[in-house]
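Give me structure tokens for this 257-residue protein.
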Amino acid sequence: MIRRSLNYIRGGACLFAIGLVLIIGDPIQRLLFVLLPLSGRFSSRIQVSWFRFWANTMLQIPTFFCGVRFRPLPSVPGNSGVLILMNHQSLLDIPYLGAALNENIPLFVTRRRYAKGIPLVSNMLRLYKFPLVDPARFSVSQLKALTETAANAPYPVAIFPEGSRTKNGEIRKFRTAGVNAILSSRSWSVHLLIVDGLWMCATLPDFVRKISQVRPKSVVFGPFSFDPKTDDPEQFMADMREKMVAGLARLRQDSKA
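Here you go.
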């Protein structure tokens, strides 16, 4: 009982701290991007550094308040032409990938509803021009915009092929409309980032209750080449899902050892 109460207190303090730093960071970010044109050739470097700073900060807060150990993180390639497929377990998945990327930032395909109402985060999605979609109602115009963004992306593109967070940590069925639009745009070097342990804090109430208990682990598979001129996207994604399921099983087996 005492331990559970302590976990609640630590989780609540952690969530409060995250909210506080997002509120403080939002006006700073707005001012930074207003002044960004004055930085000239350093503009891209500042944008990348700012994003990576916040990705690491979002992981450092649970580490400080709750003792969550995210490191060592895997190394994920950050160059153009890289497509990252990641399983979706928690609210921390995007910062996790941002901190794991060995350079640059991930252009993450993100739900459109997150582009409003969240301090710093909503503004960041717009400023960095993350691909915004409505997974429940993929339209032709959304898919066309996603294809164009992926074709010209100067940074790696990342997507949750499951579309939404898992409830038990298992790999859900893939929603392939968005992934297929991305795959059709150019040749890709595909990497799989498989994370386990974070599903316990998939929602805000779960975050408060269980963030102190999570022990995240991850592994990266790849690269796997995809050429839209010769490869079948449906078969390719079926293979990728199979590899992700096997990778998750291996992570869980290693945790038991």
